[in-house]
Amino acid sequence: MNRWHEVDHYLTETVVRPDDAVRNAVSATHDAGMPAIEVTAGQGKFLMLLARMSGARRILEIGTLGGFSTIWLARGIPEDGTVDTCEFELAHAEVARRNLDSAGVGHKVTIHVGAALDTLLALSGPYDLFFIDADKVNNPQYLEAALRLSRLGSVIVLDNVVRGGNVLNADGDESTLGTRRALEIMGSHPRLESTALQTVGAKDWDGFALAVVRS
Ligand code: DHB
Ligand code: MG
């Protein structure tokens, strides 16, 4: 086991301390044969804290998978807050619905099944926080949609921006190029104040970008 994984395990057990609801959501997702690419518990709780720190009440997530990050996001908002989450695969959405209901946050969450680019056209803002964690090729379009649905002070998080260093491949695959374009927008858009951080841990070497809408 990579030492990063051991440290992540230690930090998770010592600091994050995920409860049975989130542990069960991960097992149920893996048992359903879905890809094990959900955020770690530490990252999930980071999202929860970001929601709480920013006082978010309306969250938009792109990429539900089994609803693991969704559970954390829903925990970060008040009882009457809402999460809209977009998922392409109906089978994934069904697993996510069960996980969200089992975790006791289902009443806060609407899962929109279908291509997120279509769903986004029908949604109205403003949202307080965005978590973009879906197909990477569309990252620039997802970011533009978030900007359209944002207000001054909205928070945007973009997952998987490093991918083991792949982000440096200017002639990389379409996913890499999608992420690179989104990062360029985050760095240069007049309405965004942005940063990006590398991470190591249970999901190896990756990173996320974070922005606040400043106008
Ligand atoms: C992949 C996607 C993710 O959102 C992630 O966090 C890790 C991996 C993937 O498509 O491989
Ligand atoms: Mg991800």
Order of helices and strands: HHHEHEHEHEHEHEE
Query: Major sheet, described briefly?
Result: 7 strands, mixed
Number of helices: 8
Total number of beta strands: 7
Rough outline: globular
> What is the CATH top level name?
Alpha Beta
Radius of gyration: 16 Å
Strand arrangement, largest sheet? 3-2-1-4-5-7-6
CATH superfamily: Vaccinia Virus protein VP39
Which class do the helix and strand fractions yield?
alpha/beta
The small molecules bound here are: 3,4-dihydroxybenzoic acid, magnesium ion
**Average residue pLDDT:** 97
User: What fold name goes in the CATH topology slot?
Assistant: Rossmann fold
Query: Alpha-carbon distance between the termini?
Result: 45 Å
- Uncertain regions: pLDDT < 50 for 5+ in a row? none
What does this structure look like?
Helix 2 packs antiparallel against helix 5 (about 90-100), helix 3 (about 40-55) runs parallel beside helix 4 (about 70-75) and helix 7 packs parallel to helix 8. The longest helix has 15 residues, at about 175-190. About 45% of the residues lie in helices and about 20% in strands. The termini are far apart. The protein has helices spanning about 5-15, 20-30, 40-55, 70-75, 90-100, 115-120, 140-150, 175-190; strands spanning about 60, 80-85, 110-115, 130, 155-160, 190-200, 205-215. A 7-stranded mixed beta sheet has the order 3-2-1-4-5-7-6, sandwiched between helices. The protein has a single domain, classed as Vaccinia Virus protein VP39 (Rossmann fold), CATH 3.40.50.150. 3,4-dihydroxybenzoic acid (DHB) binds near residues 37, 133 and 159.
